[in-house]
Amino acid sequence: MRRAVAFISCIILTILAVQFASPSVADDDDGLIRSGWKDVGLDTGGWSQTPDGTSWGTINTQIPLDPYEYKYETACQSGDALQPACAADLPACTEGPDGEAVFWYRRIREIADPMWDLFAGPVCIYSEKPRDILAEIAASISHEFQQSPVRPATVGSQPGPNALRGAETNFYAVAVEQAFDLTLLGQTVHINATPVSYTWDYGDGTIMGPSPSAGAPLPEDRWGEQTLTSHVYTATGKYGIVVTTHFQGTYSVNAGPSLPIPDEGAFASAPLGLTVWRAVTKNYADNCLENPSGDGC
Q1: Three-class secondary structure assignment of the chain
Q2: I want to staple 125 with a disulfide (CB 3.0 to 4.6 A). Which of 47, 55, 70, 145 is the partner?
Q3: Which range among 30-34, 48-52, 88-92, 122-126 shows the weakest confidence by mean pLDDT?
Q4: What is the pLDDT of residues 32-67, one digit of tens each?
Q5: Structural domains counted in the chain
């Protein structure tokens, strides 16, 4: 379909919007084409300059090797007047100076087609670049991830809570993948956290890791075997064992694309208390049948 005349009413505008909507752009219930615009006023594509270089918008028209060229027109306008019914559904455009709601059009660059297809809208443009909240979130997301409510691993030992000096004590960590939402700079940020490695502090000055092994419980008849996460204590005493779980994360802003969090988050478990005893072996020569009160009887 070609746009032959200016929009006269919101009904015509709605019909054209349905016809020309890009497959990647979802229509809202009001029939107007959206391009990632969120109720909180942030498009997850960030800000870029309009083709004429005079304004800033959320439609990226600076894509290398893009076969299209773009232009925009004031949304819901017929002649010099806005259509009231249509204008009632426009975004507020308060993110920066001189906000204006527009519809975007595009045509294939190479064939110099004189007709423009409706591509997206209504979205806002501004005379100056608004605050780039996406960039600010990206700059702080590693710090926010480290402060986020990720649950650290829990730690178990075999044997426990008592163990023997000089014997292998098996330790294991249990950590799970997690997902949750944060609010950063007024935007909804969804985070996924996946455990990837573990650093073991056995409480006696010995540190092991980061290691990809979380360890695992053993059957009781195998206690005392050496494992990838077991440890031998050389002195008796009370120890607190802590495992730090390293999580890799991804985040998305306002249900936008999933992006990697640059740095891992490290989350320490609560200390696991362990008391290490010594074993004493004695040999006795007494015959308990002959001397029931002898040592060892």
Answers
A1: CCCCCCCCCHHHHHHHHHHHCCCCCCECCCCCECCCCCCCCCCCCCCEECCCCCCEECCCCCCCCCCEEEEEEECCEECCEECHHHHCCCCCCCCCCCCEEEEEEEEECCCCCCCCEEEEEEEEEECCCCCCHHHHHHHHHHHHHHHCCCCCCEEEEECCCEEECCCEEEEEEECCCEEEEEEECCEEEEEEEEEEEEEEECCCCCEEEEECCCCCCCCHHHCCCCCCCCEECCCCEEEEEEEEEEEEEEEEECCCCCEECCCCEEEECCCEEEEEECCCCCCCCCCCCCCCCCCCC
A2: 55
A3: 30-34
A4: 433 333 444 444 457 888 988 889 888 888 888 888
A5: 2
